[in-house]
Design brief:
Elements: E1 3-4, E2 7-8, H1 9-40, H2 47-65, H3 69-90, H4 100-122, E3 138-140, E4 145-147, H5 148-170, H6 172-182, H7 184-189, H8 194-216, H9 228-241, H10 246-266, H11 274-285
Antiparallel strand pairs: 1-2, 3-4
Helix pairs in contact: 1-5, 1-8, 1-9, 1-10, 2-3, 2-4, 2-8, 3-8, 5-6, 6-8, 9-10, 9-11
Length: about 300
């Protein structure tokens, strides 16, 4: 039997692959947080609840409207993103000139409202969402049997993350977004509607969270609390990568998933804390994060 560092090859590669899939979720959720903070300077503590709303919307759409997974993957991010637009226009815009702490407290309150409302209606027990027929079964990689749906999640997350990075960093729209946050008065003078750009950016970040929620629905129990525990890990990933860094969110999310997966092989007791240990180390050595800009 082939061994790697004292562990069977199948176990090592299996945990590496599962860690990469978890890392894809971390990257996708961290990306939404990084987009919102990097361009709007809002610490969106409602991100986990918006991820949960995406999963719930997909489940309810299937149960009551007959909308299948593929349609939900397109429609749910638009619907939840539209909710984000309403929140930004009616609530967040009113505190945009205040300290970042007010935005954090406000979005945290929104998260509690969303979570508490759904708990009162559906309870705390999780519900299952069926895996699409086209993505059932698995792939024999030789060293492990990889479920087809998990492979799809990895590919879809990487495509969305890469596309978002390209739009923000390599297109004219992305240049407008970055310029609008650095010098909004000048962009207004050039005829760019900066408030509308800010609103759409927040809606896009929320839509990314909802997209991750739809992807997660067939993998994890859909419950009102599914986003609260994950949010803390995602915030740690964002801090490690650098607050507001798009590339940092993607690379760090994938890397932390791999580190977490390998920790489960060699020291399972530390698997739930290893990301926070890395965060502490990074903050001590480089407070701005691995990819963040020094103040």
């Amino acid at each position: 039997m082939t061994m790697i560092f004292g562990v069977p090859l199948a176990v090592f590669m299996g945990q590496l692959m599962l860690g990469l899939i978890n890392g894809a979720f971390y990257a996708l959720l961290s990306l939404g947080l990084a987009v919102i903070f990097g361009l709007l300077k809002i610490i969106n503590f409602a991100h986990g609840a918006q991820y949960m709303l995406g999963a719930f919307a997909a489940m309810l759409a299937l149960e009551y409207l007959g909308i299948n997974y593929w349609a939900a993957l397109l429609l749910v991010p638009l619907v939840v993103g539209a909710l984000g637009v309403v929140i930004e226009r009616l609530v967040l815009r009113r505190i945009a000139h205040l300290d970042h702490l007010y935005g954090l407290l406000l979005t945290y309150g929104l998260a509690l409202i969303f979570e508490g409302t759904l708990i009162n209606i559906f309870g705390v027990s999780g519900s299952s969402y069926p895996t699409p027929e086209a993505l059932q079964g698995g792939l024999n990689l030789g060293f492990m049997f990889l479920p087809t749906y998990r492979a799809w999640v990895l590919v879809a997350a990487l495509v969305v993350c890469g596309g978002t990075w390209f739009i923000i960093e390599r297109t004219r729209l992305g240049a407008y977004l970055r310029a609008g946050t650095e010098n909004p008065a000048l962009m207004q003078a050039f005829g760019v509607n900066v408030p509308q750009l800010i609103t759409l950016t927040y809606g896009f970040g929320v839509a990314l969270a909802a997209f991750a929620g739809v992807l997660a629905a067939p993998l994890y129990p859909v419950s009102p609390t599914m986003g609260s525990s994950l949010l803390i890990v995602v915030f740690a990933v964002v801090v490690i990568g650098g607050m507001g860094s798009i590339l940092g969110a993607i690379i760090t999310g994938l890397a932390m998933g791999l580190i977490e997966g390998l920790t489960k092989v060699y020291y399972p007791e530390a698997a739930n804390t290893v990301i926070f240990l890395v965060m502490i180390l990074v903050l001590l050595l480089r407070p701005s994060g691995l990819f963040g800009k020094e103040a």
